[in-house]
Structures are given as structure tokens and as C-alpha cells.
Write a structure and sequence with these properties.
The chain has about 300 residues and is mainly α. It has 16 helices and no strands. The longest helix is centred in the N-terminal third of the chain and has 33 residues.
Length: about 300
């Protein structure tokens, strides 16, 4: 009896040790996720998975799904979301995130059933409606996309993302003024909404209202200063109004953020020449040729 009790004690102690080790790894993974170091976080969670008790596995699987999605390993993300769903089949976030993984993989049709599953569990899951509307839009079904996002807005009239998505759908149909109204409504609800400012700039640019477009792009750049696309579009619009110095500055920023952005190099050379900076333009032309080859 004493021997059995001793063995049980050691087994219990070992179990506690495994739990503690797994929890420590999970905490490290959580800290790395907060720092947006998703690849390193995934390593921690994978190690924790080896010894974690069942009550910790669902959280590990969900976090692994998020990490792999963030580093564009969508197949691994989907695999772990599905594992999480086996443990917690009534958790809508799992299906929503699995849908996102399929969406970013470009498999929009496969994403839709996961969004629908999330909505069937949580009827007021506005983000799932929004993501599903985006999938329908990318599938070319603008009417269904609009109907879907309108359901989300009806559930939550303060859903800023919904108005941004609706604006995109309206802009697809060349309903510029209505799209502008939706983007402005999104911005009123979320004043730091960089994507809505960017989309607003795009529409103004399409309409030839370049000063308004520049203002909107600059607002987007203030809030999202790590997106080369914002600075590239800003630079192109500056070119349209002959503001070559500002265009040059915008293209330089785009290149710093994305050294492989060929069009930014092309337009930077043009802007420099327009600014009568021939020697600097030649330098950047040679950099462009070395990186991308001759035209």
C-alpha cells in the first residue's frame, strides 16, 4: 500500500511538473504573440503541445492557428483550427478564424461555410458577417456581399468595419458618392480607421478629386505608417497634381517599407527628374536596374 501511494505521489508530481512546464511555454508564447513575433510564438506553443493536459490544448491549438495564419502558413493554421474545433465545437471564434485562413489562402468559397457556422452559433457575430461579405465580394457576387453586410449593420449600426466593406461593394459598382458616404460614416465611428481613409482616397482619386485624395491618403499614412501601398498611392496622386517633391518623398517611404516595390522605384526616378535632380535620378535608375533588370 505504501509503495502504491509513493508511486501515485510521483505520478501526481510528474503530472504537475508537466503542467507547469506547459504553462510556462504558453506564457512565453503569449508574450511573443503580443510582440507580433508569431513564428517564435508558434515554436513555444508547439513545444507546450507535447506535454500539455487536455484542458490546455484547445487554447494552444487556437493560438497556433492564429500564429500560422499571421506567418501565411494557412494550411497549418487550418489544421490547428480544426483540432481546436474537435475539443470546443461550440466556440464561434474557431470557425471564424478558420474561415479567415481559407480567405487569405484565396479559397473564398471554402471560407464561407466556416463563417456560416460561426454565425449559427453566435447570431450577432458581426465580424463573421463582414468576413463572409468580403468573401462573396471576392467571388464576384456583389449583390450577395451587400445583402450580407447589411445584416451585420442591422445587428450593430455602430459597426465601422461594416460601412467600410459596404463602401467597397458600392465602389465596385462605380457608385462613388454612396461609397464616400459609407467610408465617412466608418471614419466617424472609428476616427483612426486607416483602411477607410485609404479607400476614401482611392475613390476621390478615381473621381479626379486629387486634393481630397491626397488629404485622405495622408490621414491613412498617419495611422498606418508601415504600409508601402499607402505611400505609393499618395506619391502617384502627388504626381497627378505636379507636386514632384512630395511625390519623391512618398516613393522613398514606400521603398523603405518594401524594397521590392518596383513601381515605386520607377516613379521615384520620374519625380527626381521632374525636380531637376538628374544625378540622383540616375543613381536610383541604376539601383532599379540592379534589383529588377532593365526595362
Amino acid at each position: 500500500m505504501k509503495k502504491w501511494l509513493l508511486a501515485a505521489f510521483f505520478t501526481f508530481a510528474a503530472f504537475n511538473g508537466f503542467c507547469a512546464a506547459a504553462e510556462e511555454l504558453i506564457n512565453k508564447g503569449d508574450a511573443l504573440m503580443e510582440q507580433e513575433k508569431y513564428g517564435e510564438a508558434a515554436v513555444m506553443y508547439k513545444e507546450a503541445e507535447k506535454t500539455a493536459p487536455e484542458n490546455l490544448l484547445m487554447g494552444i491549438y487556437l493560438n497556433l492557428g492564429i500564429c500560422y495564419r499571421k506567418i501565411n502558413d494557412y494550411d497549418s493554421a487550418i489544421e490547428y483550427y480544426k483540432k481546436a474545433a474537435v475539443i470546443s465545437p461550440e466556440m464561434p471564434d474557431i470557425y471564424y478564424n478558420a474561415g479567415l485562413a481559407y480567405y487569405y489562402k484565396g479559397e473564398y468559397k471554402k471560407a464561407v461555410p466556416f463563417y456560416k457556422k460561426a454565425i449559427s452559433i453566435s447570431r450577432e457575430y458581426t465580424e463573421a458577417y463582414g468576413a463572409m461579405a468580403m468573401a462573396y465580394r471576392d467571388m464576384g457576387n456583389s449583390k450577395l456581399a451587400i445583402n450580407t453586410i447589411m445584416k451585420a449593420i442591422k445587428i450593430n449600426p455602430d459597426y465601422a468595419g461594416g460601412y467600410n466593406i459596404l463602401g467597397n461593394c458600392l465602389e465596385d459598382n462605380k457608385e462613388h458618392e454612396k461609397a464616400i458616404e459609407m467610408y465617412k460614416r466608418a471614419i466617424r465611428l472609428r476616427p483612426n480607421y486607416s483602411a477607410a481613409f485609404f479607400n476614401l482616397g482611392w475613390v476621390y482619386d478615381e473621381m479626379g478629386q486629387y486634393i481630397n485624395a491626397i488629404d485622405a491618403y495622408n490621414q491613412a499614412a498617419v495611422m498606418e505608417n508601415a504600409d508601402p501601398g499607402v505611400f505609393y498611392n499618395l506619391g502617384v496622386t502627388y504626381m497627378k497634381v505636379g507636386s514632384w517633391y512630395n511625390a519623391e518623398d512618398a516613393f522613398r517611404k514606400a521603398i523603405r517599407l518594401d524594397p521590392e516595390h518596383k513601381e515605386a522605384y520607377d516613379n521615384l526616378v520620374i519625380a527626381l527628374r521632374k525636380n531637376n535632380m538628374g544625378r540622383e535620378a540616375e543613381k536610383w535608375e541604376q539601383i532599379r536596374i540592379q534589383r529588377f533588370g532593365a526595362k
